[in-house]
Amino acid sequence: MSSNAGRSVSRRSVPGVVVAGVLVALLGLLAIAGYVVIRVRAHDNSLLIRPTGIPASVSTRTADLMQLSPVPTSPAPGFTLTDQAGRTLSLAGLRGRVVVLEFMDPHCTDICPIVSQEFIDAYRDLGNRVSRVEFVAVNVNRYHLRVADVAAFSAEQRLTRIPSWHFVTGPYLSLQAVWQAYNVEVAAPGPNADVIHSSVMYFINPAGQMRYVASPMDDRTKAGSSYLPPDQLAAWAEGIAQVARQLAR
Question: pTM of whole model > 0.85?
Answer without folding.
Answer: no
